[in-house]
Design brief:
Elements: H1 15-18, H2 21-37, H3 40-56, H4 61-67, H5 69-91, H6 94-106, H7 114-136, H8 140-157, H9 167-193, H10 200-229
Helix pairs in contact: 2-7, 2-8, 3-7, 5-7, 8-9, 9-10
């Protein structure tokens, strides 16, 4: 009955597992900034490199694709918008085309060309791969301690109070990402165990469960950290 949960920790003895969490927390955003600002070929290189690293860490193809699902859905949405734009430009006259484009722009949706979509998606794939490697090689406690080390250093440099006040909040926010995936996978397992089928009805039933259970887990985690610190 066990099913892989996206962005969840996977035990191992690799160099990435042994690397301090604070170093990974600082290194990954820096690499992502590089990816978004340099030539698109750099993004392609990072995607290939991180895929090789993930395979060396014994992360299966299925596990890697599970972590990339948000980007895949986003890609489908972008290409769907592009398809609708092409249909409108083909069957509508100029006046109706302008009305359609103004509605799209006013809704905050950016219209991409096919090539720009591909470049943006490659960069997003690289970013999601980096986040996946961090979460898979770091436990929630390691991430919290890593955030604490960074905050303590910043407070020391700025001559602020030594007591960390943001560590718990930031670590809870970061660690809530794999928790959401875990709750969702558990809910789907229960749904299927009771004979439910995948479809619109499943999402309508399980999304409120995801929200309520997620809020309860977040509250319990926050209370546990508060009691521990006191």
């Amino acid at each position: 009955m066990h099913k892989y949960s996206a962005f969840s920790y996977k035990s191992g003895n690799s160099l990435f597992h042994k690397m301090p969490a604070w170093l990974k927390i600082l290194l990954i955003p820096a690499l992502n900034i590089v990816v978004f600002n340099l030539h698109p070929l750099v993004s392609v290189f990072f995607v290939i490199l991180q895929f090789i690293i993930a395979c060396c860490l014994r992360f299966s193809i299925r596990e890697q694709l599970s972590d990339l699902k948000p980007v895949i859905f986003y890609a489908a949405l972008l290409y769907l918008i592009g398809f609708c734009s092409d249909v409108c430009s083909t069957f509508f006259d100029n006046a109706n085309q302008q009305v359609f484009l103004s509605i799209i722009k006013s809704s905050g949706i950016k219209i991409f060309t096919d090539s720009s979509i591909a470049l943006q998606l490659v960069k997003l794939f690289a970013v999601m791969q980096s986040a996946s490697i961090v979460f898979k090689t770091s436990t929630s406690l390691e991430i919290r301690d890593g955030v604490g080390v960074i905050e303590s250093f910043v407070r020391k440099v700025l001559h602020l109070k030594k007591k960390n006040t943001l560590t718990n909040t930031i670590s809870l926010f970061v660690c809530f990402i794999p928790l959401v995936y875990k709750i969702w996978n558990q809910s789907k397992l229960v749904w299927k165990a009771r004979g439910g089928k995948k479809g619109l009805r499943m999402y309508l039933k399980l999304l409120p469960v995801l929200l309520s259970v997620g809020m309860k887990n977040a509250w319990n985690s926050a209370r546990a950290l508060t009691i521990r610190d006191n």
